[in-house]
Amino acid sequence: MADRYASFAHSGPGRVLIKRLGLPDPPRLRRYHAGDPVADGPVLVGSSDGRLAKTLRETLTHAGVELADAAGGPYAALIFDATGITGSAGLRGLYDFFHPNARAMRSGGRVIVLGTPPEEATTPAEATAQRALEGFTRSAGKEFGRGSTAQLVYVSNSGENNLESTLRFLLSARSAYVSGQVIRIKAGPGAGTPDWSKPLDGKTALVTGAARGIGAAIARVLARDGADVIALDVPAAGDALAGVANDVRGRALQLDLTASDAGERLAAYLGDGVDIIVHNAGITRDRTIAKMDPGWWDAVLDVNLSSQERINRVLLERDLIRAGGRLIGVASIAGIAGNRGQTNYATSKAGVIGLVQSMAPALLSRGITINAVAPGFIETAMTAKMPVALREAGRRMNSLAQGGLPVDVAETIAWFASPGSAAVTGNVVRVCGQSLLGA
Q: Nearest Cα to 111, choosing from 26, 45, 156, 186?
């Protein structure tokens, strides 16, 4: 559904009125198109004697990013290596770098702060200072405006060689609707450098709930990146599912994941295995807990959470998720902040987050990563049916003052799926334009 307010805001009279009345001003967001550079201009890098400074510059250069000098901009991004901050006094380094350069960042720019995971700090003072970076980054995401985003990336000790995939995503237009997030990169050997134009070439990806909306967008983006896509949905969505599968030159699989034999049938279909599984299938049955039918509670928990657990269990037990595999769930900010009338849905989506956090350590030894996205307000057929007031609130209550698009969720999933993201695991990244709801 078209965002008429945003269209008006981008018009001449709209710009005048919005400025005069102080109304939300949704910027035009740049989305990725094939062939786009990683960054659309020079990037300024600063450091507080951090351990990542040398590797950071080498990684950016390898990615084809132009490194700027402190000549006043305009800059496409400001990146600060804060790993050298070992106490609260050192946090002044953030001010010293960003204060003189903030106004030189162009519209739609990127702010990235790199830190050390507080739990890996060598002293309480260092852990305190590194945790403080979260407050700075989340505030920066709300201050810079004009379509800019801000992220904090905690890089484990000995994780320096695993930066490229994450930097490519965060600097590019692929992350247009991701802001205010904290991302963790684990230690380990550097991931093999893929063909960045087709990073998923030779990979097989299963996408559930793929017949429409976000699921269809995920299938298209993964196929664009080279994956052989298996698009799965319930038999009732067969026609739409076939359309998506044909569009991505993939395969359509009609299967009800809540069926008692779903795991067995899926395992038989996959044959020699799968590289990427995106658990996108989900339903809503909204009602306050006092008025909710027990069948609605059971259906939402089964589709949104329990079916994922069952499918994962069968495929892992049979070694059908190949080495270097990717498990990716679709949670929701409802699972973080809660939502009136959605106790069942919020419970299921918080469970998806719990699934990521509980399984990530166990899967490390098998070389499999598990992450999740948590979408906020995304423009889909479902949100188009919301009451006008609720729909407008959902669109405006974030730092970018607009709803996201299904492709924004899909791009984030494609980053998780990339071979270069082998050290990105246990993360839940909100695709919400830095929603004002939740953490």
A: 45
Dihedral (CA of 354, 357, 362, 364) sign: positive
Q: Is the dihedral of CA 363, 282, 388, 17 positive or negative?
A: positive
DSSP-derived secondary structure letter, 5: H
Quick: pLDDT tens for 134-147. 999 999 999 999 99
Question: Torsion over CA of 103, 144, 37 and 402, rounded to 10 degrees?
Answer: -150
Long-range (24+ apart) CB contacts under 8 A made by 134-143 are 134/182, 136/91, 136/94, 137/111, 137/113, 137/180, 137/182, 138/180, 138/434, 140/98, 140/111, 140/113, 141/111, 141/179, 141/180, 141/399, 141/434, 142/180, 142/399, 142/434, 143/102
- Residue 229 pairs in a beta bridge with 205
Asked if residue 439 has pLDDT above 60, the reply is no
Between CA 253 and CA 13 the distance in angstroms is 50
Domains of the chain: 1-27 (no CATH), 31-185 (3.40.50.720), 204-431 (3.40.50.720)
Residues with Cβ within 8 Å of 39's Cβ and at least 6 positions away in sequence, in order, are 65, 66, 76, 77, 110, 171, 172
Task: Give tens-digit pLDDT for 187-205.
Answer: 987 666 679 999 999 999 9
Pairing of strands 204-208, 274-279: parallel
pLDDT value of position 388: 85
Give the pTM. Answer: 0.97
Q: Residue 75's CB: how many other CB atoms inside 10 A?
A: 24
Cβ neighbours for 151, distance < 8 A, ≥ 6 positions apart: 110, 111, 112, 113, 137, 141, 170, 175, 178, 179, 180, 181, 182, 183
Q: Which residues are catalytic?
A: 345
Q: What does DSSP assign to residue 304?
A: I
CA 283 to CA 194: how far, in whole Å?
Answer: 35
Residue 341: alpha-carbon gap to chain centroid: 26
Q: Which amino acid is at 395?
A: R
Nearest to 137 by CA among 175, 94, 189: 94
Residue 105, C-beta contacts closer than 8 angstroms, at least 6 positions apart: 73, 74, 75, 76, 77, 78, 111, 144, 148
Alpha carbon 198 to its chain's center: 19
Q: Work out the percent of the chain whose per-residue pLDDT is above 90.
A: 88
pLDDT of residue 390: 85
The secondary structure of residue 429, as a DSSP letter, is E
Token pair 């350590």 is found at: 361
Q: Please indicate whether residue 381 or residue 156 has the higher confidence score (pLDDT).
A: 156
